[in-house]
Amino acid sequence: MPITILDHPLAADLLTVLRDKDTSPARFRQHAERLGYFLVAEAISDMPTDEVALETPLEPTTGTMLHRPIVAVAVLRAGLGLLQSVLTLVPDATIGFAGVQRNEDTAEPIEYYTKFPELSAARVIILEPMLATGGSLSWAIDKVKENGAKDIVCCCVVAAPEGVGVIEESHPDVRVVAAALDRELDPNFYIAPGLGDMGDRLFGTL
Ligand code: URA
Asked: In which domain, by residue range, is 23 found?
């Protein structure tokens, strides 16, 4: 599985604010959305384009447009923190939701809601900010594949080596884009150093 780690000073700056335990939920949401622009732009960077003819105010010329539609699938609830980034960059994207809760003892995924638009012809961008054990992301990839997805990229804010290994093994055809590859999972399956519970930090449920 190809994994791309962002290499940009502004993305690193934004991630640093997310990691800081003193960042308020309002600032956290704003910085997650901004960092999401980098992740989503990278997730689209290898998409095919079509040449199109147009006229500028000066003369006829050609440009390029994305060949395929884009679907973003937000893994609830932390994936909502990156959703606005997709909608701002790609207003025509359609949106799916994958509701999964992790069993706090085993970290196994428990499904509670799924709803997807047409996936088979699209670049499907799964928004799963914390790639920890890989259980939820692997489950979400299974779900979108069952529903026809063939071209899948995952946007993660932070990935743990353990989760990357799980996705590499279970879905070698899926590319992961992350802002950082962190050291390890702690005994409670949190990513270290990480940024804590992404959903709690986004929505102030600490
Ligand atoms: N989910 C989170 O929100 N944070 C982690 O560190 C791991 C999983």
From this structure: 3-48+65-203
